[in-house]
Amino acid sequence: MDARFASLLLLNLVHLFLRISAREFLLPGSSLSIEDSSHMLHSPDGTFTCGFKNISRNASVFSIWFSNTVDKTAVWSANHLHPVYSWGSRVMLYADGGMVLEDYNGQSVWENNVNSSSKAVKAQLLDTGNLIVKGQGDIILWQSFHSPTDTLLPYQNITSATKLVSTSRLLVPGRFSFHFDDQHLLTLFDDEKDISFIYWPNPNSDIWTKQRNSFNTTTIGVLDSWGYFLASDNLNFKASDWGIRIMRRLTLDYDGNLRLYSLNKTDGTWSVTWMALPQTCSIRSLCGMNGICVYTPRPSCACAPGYEIIDPNDRSQGCRPKFNPSCDGQEMFVKLPNTDFRGNDQSKNTSVSFHTCKKICLNDCNCKGFLYWQASGGCYPKSSLLGGEMRPGLGRSIYIKLPKTLQVSKSSIPQSQPFDPRYAPNCSAKTKYFIPDFLDQPKDSHSGLNSQYLYLLYGFLLAIFLVEVIFVALGCWFVFRMEGKQLPGVWPAEIGYEMITNHFRGYTYKELQKATQNFKDQIGCGASGHVYKGVLKDKRVVAVKRLADINQGGEEFQHELSVIGKIYHMNLVRVWGFCSDGPHRILVLEYVENGSLDKTLFSSTRLLEWKERFNIAIGVAKGLAYLHHECLEWVIHCDLKPENILLDDNLNPKISDFGLAKLVSRGGSNKNVSRIHGTRGYIAPEWVSSQPITAKVDVYSFGVVVLELLKGARVSDWASNADEEVETVFAWVIRMLAENLMLEGGQQLWISDFIDSRLNGQFNELQARTMVKLAISCVEEDTRKRPTMENVVHMFLSVVDA
Ligand SMILES: *[C@@H]1O[C@H](CO)[C@@H](O)[C@H](O)[C@H]1NC(C)=O
Ligand SMILES: *[C@@H]1O[C@H](CO)[C@@H](O)[C@H](O)[C@H]1NC(C)=O
Ligand SMILES: *[C@@H]1O[C@H](CO)[C@@H](O)[C@H](O)[C@H]1NC(C)=O
Ligand SMILES: *[C@@H]1O[C@H](CO)[C@@H](O)[C@H](O)[C@H]1NC(C)=O
Ligand SMILES: *[C@@H]1O[C@H](CO)[C@@H](O)[C@H](O)[C@H]1NC(C)=O
Ligand SMILES: *[C@@H]1O[C@H](CO)[C@@H](O)[C@H](O)[C@H]1NC(C)=O
Ligand SMILES: *[C@@H]1O[C@H](CO)[C@@H](O)[C@H](O)[C@H]1NC(C)=O
Ligand SMILES: *[C@@H]1O[C@H](CO)[C@@H](O)[C@H](O)[C@H]1NC(C)=O
């Protein structure tokens, strides 16, 4: 009796021992079954649990999770792509250390692939969250730390042999991964169907900007117990609540952002204490094809106008067109302000007009739209609309190509708006696919939903503000560097900085008020406005021109100026910037020492020598030729006259006021050229007779200016009595000159009669003759008979050394 009782007791004890031991470790030959809730492994301090975790009523995944968190946050799982049935599934440990997960039907779903001759002693979950299979002599046969899923725990090394892969909401492999690349840098990859690309660190920045080190072949990175991550490539970051005794995890979330979380032990919730991409919307494939990421303030996906969502429950699938794509050159463009689709540029053209850019896209059936950068005239036609992001203050706009017949309502243009119900997370979808809520701001408290949202809202506004501050700061820094080192204007193709690196920029009215001491020192006054001298903050002396009668809207004005700002030639006055503040339309121009040509040429203060006059004529010709033929936009000056030709300290001419008449496209349409420009005496006949206006109007004006240079008198002063019309006198002089030119050889006295008597005959006769000949052909009534400015320059050059 006693013996039987004793053996029963022993059996019970063994049983009890086994049950207890099952919680601490798993012995070879035994298994954890899914039905028995006691069949779980706990870490000695109870932080982690390993077992079957149900993801729905009848599906489970063998996982390791934080025991004391609200949602039992998993840190590791065995083949989460193949959940097992919630009845009859089990995990077995074999004597050789092999661990196998079997579905209810005996199908092996996962194995740990141990490769050892040593015998296993036990499997056990450590306090670090590492599940290990121990062999004899305490050697580790296998550990979960060496095959992470989407999370790294403190002390868990990431090496070249391991990687994190995001967990997809739809039980399909995640597309984002975090691992060492072939340059030994820890990198975030986006694996699309046929390509894989890096999205963090920014692939466009160089290694110095990345602040990484690609020479260390010992690839390792680890998060320490204080919340500090350090890797061999010098990637390092710190949790915002840096300190000991806080539970943390580094997770590559399903949206592709890598976030460091800290646990609040009181209520078992997580808060973000660091993240790789401060703006989740900058992850290119987040919203899929034709989708646009907006901030509500939480990142959400919207569709581009004309497109509809493919799967409301998985917005990363993107959007499909609601129209039949066609290509008849009859499409319209819809502007999406402050929106960009990153990448997929078919080409890059800078300094093209908006219309040219539109044409490039319209003529290309593969073009789905284009990005136009107002400030620099940058044109980026897109072959696909991927990586869309709408962010207030982004400063660039996308124009998407849609059939003309499509109705596009204003409300279909995506906006970043807090609490916009259109992009609110779908609550039914949420329960279906357990979308975690990401708080994209490190937070330290949340009491109730309202304050949480308020916090997010303020955080969002703050983030935008910070981005602006950083942008402005960077801009200043760039300008500063440019000033200090006089770097050539070549910079990495980072749009947005182009504007700054070119020195061309917008100024506020206040800045210019300050620079000119409230428009005190007036140095000029013309039909287009008053000019004041000013000194910018960076000590540059500038001429500030307040434009009168510009009735263009700010954006149109900026666009035209962005083209003008790109024009750079030694015989053209440089445009440094502009101001379009409220009603003010102001140009910031290069300051030219010696004022305008009329002041010197027609006054007695200083006599212009022959050489100087010839030099001025050739310079003006070169400047005009550049405007007409060489610069990217075809610019017609339309108001060339001595008042608009400035002389620098070496008496080199610089043409000013170009581009103020509306820019004309090379195609030849000229309806937009304003006819209010032009000054009597210099305007070509076709100007008045409303014939087409071409660059030949400038050739005409140039001819008049050359004659003035020769004669040293204003064309309007040529008449000997006040009753005579300027045009009549001018026509008579031209006829006379033309007839004299016909006279072969013989006495050329008429030339010295015509040329400024103040020169006392000190002029080069061949040059003078050539100039007269040229001037006469320039003022031909028939525009086709006038030479081009290029011809003019060539003729001048042929007599330079005479
Ligand atoms: C997991 O199972 C528990 C108990 O059976 C149940 O209350 C819970 O809703 C299940 N979880 C999911 C995600 O289905
Ligand atoms: C899941 O469980 C429910 C309730 O037990 C059952 O009605 C349903 O058929 C199960 N689904 C599958 C796919 O087995
Ligand atoms: C596994 O073991 C076999 C035989 O011992 C050996 O040939 C093979 O290289 C090992 N594989 C790994 C990955 O260690
Ligand atoms: C992590 O790497 C360090 C240095 O190589 C090593 O000492 C440590 O054992 C590794 N930790 C784990 C869990 O493998
Ligand atoms: C490479 O990285 C390891 C680990 O961070 C570090 O100990 C070592 O000094 C680094 N070597 C070089 C050459 O930077
Ligand atoms: C735009 O750039 C492409 C190449 O990048 C070039 O072939 C094309 O001629 C350019 N178009 C204009 C209008 O400058
Ligand atoms: C939310 O998801 C459910 C289930 O997938 C779907 O029926 C519903 O139309 C969705 N609601 C919205 C507003 O997209
Ligand atoms: C943790 O949560 C509790 C309850 O919500 C809150 O009172 C406390 O401030 C939180 N602690 C931290 C460090 O966020």
Automatic annotation (TrEMBL):
Keyword Mitochondrion attached: no
PROSITE patterns: BULB_LECTIN, PAN, PROTEIN_KINASE_ATP, PROTEIN_KINASE_DOM, PROTEIN_KINASE_ST
GO BP: recognition of pollen; response to other organism
Cellular component per GO, a single term: membrane
Residues reported to bind ATP: 545
UniProt xrefs under Pfam families: B_lectin, PAN_1, Pkinase, S_locus_glycop
Entry-linked SMART domains: B_lectin, PAN_AP, S_TKc
Keywords from the UniProt entry: ATP-binding, Disulfide bond, EGF-like domain, Glycoprotein, Kinase, Membrane, Nucleotide-binding, Receptor, Serine/threonine-protein kinase, Signal, Transferase, Transmembrane, Transmembrane helix
Superkingdom, taxonomy of origin: Eukaryota
Protein kinase domain mapped to chain residues: 517-797
Signal sequence segment: 1-22
Start and end residues of each Apple domain: 327-403
Limits of the Bulb-type lectin domain: 23-146
Reactions catalysed, as given in the entry: L-threonyl-[protein] + ATP = O-phospho-L-threonyl-[protein] + ADP + H(+); L-seryl-[protein] + ATP = O-phospho-L-seryl-[protein] + ADP + H(+)
UniProt-annotated location(s): Membrane
Entry-linked InterPro entries: Bulb-type_lectin_dom, Bulb-type_lectin_dom_sf, Kinase-like_dom_sf, Pan_app, Prot_kinase_dom, Protein_kinase_ATP_BS, S_locus_glycoprot_dom, Ser/Thr_kinase_AS
GO molecular function ontology, one term from the record: protein serine/threonine kinase activity
CDD domains per record: B_lectin, EGF, PAN_AP_plant, STKc_IRAK
The keyword Protein biosynthesis is assigned to this record: no
The protein's enzyme class: transferase
Gene3D superfamilies with a match to the protein in the record: Bulb-type lectin domain, Hepatocyte Growth Factor, Phosphorylase Kinase, domain 1, Transferase(Phosphotransferase) domain 1
Documented EC number(s): 2.7.11.1
Membrane topology: Single-pass type I membrane protein
PANTHER family cross-referenced by the UniProt entry: OS07G0415500 PROTEIN (PTHR47974), PROTEIN KINASE DOMAIN-CONTAINING PROTEIN (PTHR47974:SF33)
Sequence similarity: Belongs to the protein kinase superfamily. Ser/Thr protein kinase family.
Protein name according to UniProt: Receptor-like serine/threonine-protein kinase
Species lineage: Eukaryota, Viridiplantae, Streptophyta, Embryophyta, Tracheophyta
